[in-house]
Please model this.
Amino acid sequence: MRTPTNPRVLAPAWALALTTGALSLALAASGCSTIADELGGEPERSRVSPGSFAGGADAPAVPRPDPDESGFDVASAGPVLAAPPRTRPQTYTLRADPGIPGYAPAAPVSQPELVDAKVGDINGHPIYAGAFLAPLEARLIAEADRLPARQWHMLADREIKRALDQLVTDELLRAEALAGLNEEQRQGLRAFLENAQQAFVSENRGSERLAEKRLLESEGQTLEDRKRDEESNTLVRLNLSREIVQRVHVSRRDIEQRYERDFELYNPPPLARFRLIRAFTSETAKIAAIRDALASGKAFAEIASGELNSFRPDEGGVQEVRVEGEFADTEFFGAEALNELAKTLSPGQWEGPIEFGSLTGWLLLETIEQESTSLYDAQLKIEQELTIERRQEELDKYINRLIERARVGDLDEIHARLYEIAVERYGPRDR
Model:
């Protein structure tokens, strides 16, 4: 509050407005005429100065107020006109009074429901259940209507664990990569992200509003969300490249050793493919029809896939068996007579009819497939497998080191809390 230097305290402007306004109302209410009404012309004009409102010799004195709130002491000032008392703003607390006749508290429309909850921290960044579960929500709700309760709980637990591990990995890698950037690299990152943002906006007619509208419709993100995700992904890729990718090398010797270890995988035993047509021996009409069909030159596979066959007709009567060791020592069928017949066949040859138990059958050895992949053909696939395995091993070690250094809450406890909330929100009902 500014301290006045005039020895007389002037009436504030609001006092003037209040006084003149009240006077006008009083005159109007009492029916008194104004000066203009009396003289039949314009009212006499007079100058009003600050002195007009100062207390004169005849002005009644008023009690001196105590120092006001600002600390200004008005004891030395002259008499002032009486002004409306200043009052402090009043605060009122409204509540329903149980003593009022007919009062009854409103009944809750539903049970209290958890809106959101902080379940843990990663490097000082809080994890909120709502934001974490949002990407899983649609699937968990859909599966709750489709799966038995036990299977849904297993699915929810697995998906939450996977998403939590990914979140921890990404956050730690992002923070580590950001900490390793110098100022020049940080500026380069900002420029890269701005260019990516501008390119995305350009694809939407150069309109940020249109770009954000389409982004919200397709991915539920704003442009700022997209930029933040792009920054995180870029930093994660940078850190993976620097700490993992560049450290993993697969040598020619590594590839050879893996091929020797998995030799049977690349050179599996031969695969014998049979087709069997069978019918009960008592079904003489069906057996006769099978004989006639074969005699007419109808394809064996076609008959085996038809209604005359009682052995896997939907699969064309196919039976495939790996030939472990010698062909003659392999068991192809459980029925001894049929198994012995199978060992005498050559690819493309069929025999029958033959009776085994209560059945009569015809058997075709269609092919013996020998699949073999040389080291030369397998080396690229083996190199890719070894690279992925070793990068994952290095990543696991690296993440474990970061977790030991970083401030990460108890992941088991965070997982359990997220699972509880997911069950409450999305779990199967009444099952």
Observations:
- The longest helix spans residues 149-179.
